[in-house]
Design goal:
This protein is α/β, with parallel strands linked by helices and 333 residues long. It contains 11 helices and 11 strands. Helix content is 48%, strand content 17%. The chain has an 11-stranded mixed sheet, sandwiched between helices. Helix 3 crosses helix 5 and helix 8 packs antiparallel against helix 9. It is globular. The model has no long low-confidence stretch (mean pLDDT 92).
């Protein structure tokens, strides 16, 4: 199994990307990594490793560039060279912490969609209070959606839950402003009807944003605009809670500081659990090969997690499961 890694994607590349790649190789002796970027810099950082292949790429796509133009014109960029390796069969999946738009456009153009997928979507796995996870799909790839897209998002996320996390019949909910069937705007009501009648989807109804992490649902589908707002709201709330705790501890005197010291392991564990970036990134579902978009501020631990996330998607046959499910639906229709 060989995974392509964009060596110059992200705020802390290439140093943290190289560290993350080496950590992934240490954790899994059965994978190889194809790392793209400026060869001399990558060799200086990584040294010699029998399962690390470095592919020279002299250009870098910045986050301020127009994605379609950058992907088409910067053919020697670290991202495009990595995408080409996946397209040509030299690698089985991709990790990048670079420009989200460039990763989405490039992966769609170079790797291609699974037959029957209208729109690929971004789908992070978020921790729930019951100890499992919930897939939020879409969280930003498609801000303007047709109702049929959300049925596709549900199928993609279900294939992801089945292949990577082993859930045989994931519960699917629709992000909405109320639990009742008639709640929401016309778009939400139409989506609800389509999901309710879709074959092969265990649809349990509407889910409010406050219940995404409750553990009562395994997949939450949304258009990319609402999904992104929900994701960033959850991240912001978690950060605010920790900031308020910190302020309270400092203002609470010696007793509060002693209590905080005793609870430090609990706080650290909670912070790790709430930050999905600690464990990788957002899977880009609906493509012929697995792609994970790591956060732009990812450091070595997150890059390592994203690489292992792609490994699990390959091993779980997520793309193949989705293709088989879509073909089954066509035959049933």
């Amino acid at each position: 199994m060989r995974i392509a890694v964009d060596g110059y994607g992200g705020d802390y590349s290439p140093t943290e990307v190289v560290k993350g790649a080496l950590a992934a190789l240490e954790q899994d002796k059965d994978i190889e990594i194809l790392l793209t970027g400026k060869r001399e810099e990558l060799v200086a950082l990584a040294g010699e490793h029998d399962r690390l292949i470095i592919r020279d790429a002299r250009e870098v796509i910045g986050c301020d560039e127009v994605p379609t133009v950058a992907v088409r014109t910067k053919k020697e960029s670290s991202l495009v060279v990595a995408l080409d390796a996946v397209k040509d069969g030299e690698a089985d999946g991709l990790v990048s912490a670079g420009s989200t738009g460039a990763v989405l456009i490039g992966a769609t153009l170079k790797i291609g969609r699974v037959k029957g997928v209208e729109r690929p979507a971004l789908a992070p796995a978020l921790p729930t209070v019951t100890g499992g996870n919930v897939i939020l799909c879409d969280c930003g790839a498609n801000v303007d959606c047709r109702p049929t897209y959300l049925v596709g998002f549900a199928r993609m996320a279900v294939a992801y839950q089945k292949g990577v996390f082993g859930l045989e019949n994931p519960r699917v909910g629709l992000l909405n402003n109320g639990a009742e069937e008639t709640k929401g705007n016309a778009f939400s009501v139409e989506c609800h009807g389509l999901l309710k009648n879709a074959k092969g989807i265990n649809f349990i109804g509407n889910v409010e944003a406050r219940d995404i992490l409750s553990g009562e649902v395994d997949v939450v589908v949304a258009d990319g605009f609402d999904g992104n707002v929900a994701l960033k709201s959850a991240e912001g709330t978690a950060n605010a809670v920790f900031s308020l705790l910190k302020q309270g501890i400092y203002a609470g005197g010696t007793r509060a500081k002693l209590g905080a010291l005793m609870l430090k392991p609990v706080f650290k564990g909670l912070k790790r659990k709430l930050d999905y970036n600690e464990h990788g990134g957002a899977a880009f579902l609906g493509l012929k090969k697995p792609v994970v978009k790591a956060h732009g501020s990812s450091k070595a631990k997150s890059i390592c997690g994203a690489i292992l996330q792609v490994r699990d998607m390959i091993a779980g046959g997520v793309s193949e499961r989705l293709a088989a499910d879509l073909q089954k639906d066509v035959q049933n229709d």
